[in-house]
Amino acid sequence: MQPIHINVHENVISRSPQGLCQELAFVVHVENLSYEKEVTIHWCGEDGVWHELHANFHSMGESGIEEWRAAVHVPLTEKQALPGNIEFAVSYSCAGRTYWDNNGGSNYKVDADAGLLVYNRAPVQHVFHEPELQGGKSALPIDTAVASAVRAKKVWIHWSSDHWKTRHKVAAKKRVNHWDLARGSAARNPNRYGWEMWSGQLPVDQAYRVQYAIEAVTDSGSIWDNGGGTNYAARRGTLRVLTLNLHCYQEKDQDKKFRRIARAIDEQHVDIVCFQEVGELWNDGAGDWASNAAHIINTLLPGPYHLYTDYSHLGFEKYREGIAVLSRYAFTRTDSAYVSESSDIYDIHARRVLFAQIHVPYFGPINVFSAHLSWPDGGFQEQFERLQAWAEAEHDETVVATLLCGDFNIKAGSTPYQHIVNESPYEDQYLKATAPDRFAALYAAKRKSKVPLFEDDGRIDYVFLRRGSVLDLVNTWEIFTPTWYGRVSDHTGYLAEFELA
């Protein structure tokens, strides 16, 4: 398969009280060859003038294939005609190379108001799948393109909101005036390219998640589109948690660093951030709020988050060195306490931890601890045991999940790390996502055998989730690496994404 190919194209002339408008939409599939990439639609209308339309990442599909989308609306005005029939090709630039899907050198050509075309071989294709249920939406529209050649007699949408414990089905309908109802368009259904649209709605009510598959019934049997075997899913949203040690003002260009961190929080839709080594000018111990690193990052976010911060000790001889929690959602409770023997602000081993309880919509109360513990010979084990006791005291039947996040100053696989595995209910989420076999072996071998040091894993920063929490891990990523947003500290960050179990 080529690294890029056009999957779906929609071309309709819509009619509204505001006038006529030609709407073009493109769905492109690309292989994930590198993080930095550019996907572009090159198109022209009957005037012969070529345009470049940049696509945006939409979602990750089966087998690691990314879906990118682009759309343009061209209104009819006194000075601007509609594009009419169009010609297009798609390109994908990454790692110094450019790949094309240009229909074998002939480009793709589509009539104006053609409706929808599918360019893969599947005769039944769910189109414009949206993996997120918008807040408050009680019905989910489902559109399916079916090849006219299969002569579908019925199309069913099979769905569940409880992991298929109970099953429902809804009939989709093929209306000859589909495009008129949807857009005020005169496009035909089926169209001259051999595709017809079937539409239905799932009554999702207030469900957090729905899963569904599509069945087209023909004289020769049923044809399914089940998302490549995993079924389609739409959910209200996930929870994204980031931990990052800020290294207390030790990088040269702090303004650039803070802006880069704020950009990543915004672009990656992070919900909760745990910071360590949050620097703030010492000012004889009184601090200086304007210089607080977490506060500065918060002011750079498009919509400021809720912020809770405190400090542990004098750092680098000129800063109040502390920790912070940023949250998209309001705090219901917060607390701060030393977990170290020492609470002397001039002692580097004085270690304070922050606690925040956050009520996340559709999830419920989640307990988050932002921690920066000492290294093993500086009191790590005693500090972790106090942290664990505190976390367990805060966790009750009303709490959905408890997360311990931060810089634990212990290497993955080391003896102190093994202590967490053996003696606590907390599990390493990065290991779970990136090395599931190693994770399974490690946690299955609790107290039975010593696990050797992970020579290929230099982490000392973690997102630990309490076993039994009502969260399922979706994925984790190492962030602020040379190839993803760039370095902002002597630590990288770790981003974890969860869904409701």
Structure description:
The protein has three domains: about 1-115, Sandwich (Immunoglobulin-like); about 120-235, Immunoglobulin-like (Sandwich); about 240-500, 4-Layer Sandwich (Deoxyribonuclease I, Chain A), CATH 3.60.10.10. The chain has helices at about 180-185, 255-265, 295-300, 380-395, 415-425, 430-435, 435-445; strands at about 5-15, 20-30, 40-45, 50-55, 55-60, 65-75, 85-95, 95-100, 110, 115-120, 125, 140-145, 155-160, 170, 195-200, 210-220, 220-225, 230-235, 240-245, 270-280, 305-315, 320-325, 330-340, 350-360, 365-370, 400-405, 425-430, 460-465, 470-480, 495-500. The protein contains seven helices and 30 strands. The strands form six sheets. It has a six-stranded mixed β-sheet with strand order 21-22-20-19-30-29. Strands 23-24-25-26-28-27 form a six-stranded mixed β-sheet. It has a five-stranded antiparallel β-sheet with strand order 5-6-2-1-10. Strand 13 (about 155-160) and strand 14 form a beta hairpin. Helix 2 crosses helix 3 (about 295-300). It has about 500 residues and is mostly beta strands.
